[in-house]
Here is the input.
Amino acid sequence: MRILILVCSFLLALFGMPPAKAQAPARATAGRDWSTNVTMLPTGGIVVGNPMARVQLVEWASYTCPHCAAFAKDARAELPALLRSGKVRVEYRTLPRDALDLAAALLVRCGGPNRFIAAHDAIMAQQAAMLDKADAFAQTPAAQTRAATIAIRLQQLAEATGLRALMRGHGLDDAKITACLNDEVAQKRVIAIAEAAQAAGIAGTPSFEVNGQKADVHDWATLKPLLTAK
Here is the structure.
């Protein structure tokens, strides 16, 4: 588990928004694919699943964290079925470790609720290649010259790492991608999640909360029993 590194100190000075209140767990409702029920919260979290699910899961994740990509890969075979059934509801809270992470967190939200899951999964699946390209970009004069604004740096990273191209493949055009990276309100919202996480003692990613209680687990193998216990 890698320690959370926050982005750009001037962004971190911005006032955050209060975390969403957890809903009381309840029995799932049968006969519906609850994985298509996606809501973007005003606080910046993204909720997937049945609001009345027996298990209410919160996941703090970073798009440049290899352990988060490993968790996403390991959970891929079973977590979607739990979401579809309505037994588990998950709130994704993305924690930016660096500027590339912030760019990814903005772009998974860019297409709205219907495109979130596919964008999230795609970035996690392509993370290794994205990070290799980020390392190569870091050696270029453009990377070593201070960007005039955080938005310019985010655009440089999105282009250099293939993140922009990846999001084009998920239905976003260049104008929309640029607008999302320039969105200062969205930047503040994502940074506010990190500030709230620090205040709550979340020191790294991935981290989890199950039914309002922090879980001392950081991988799918140890989290799964907490989600499937009777």
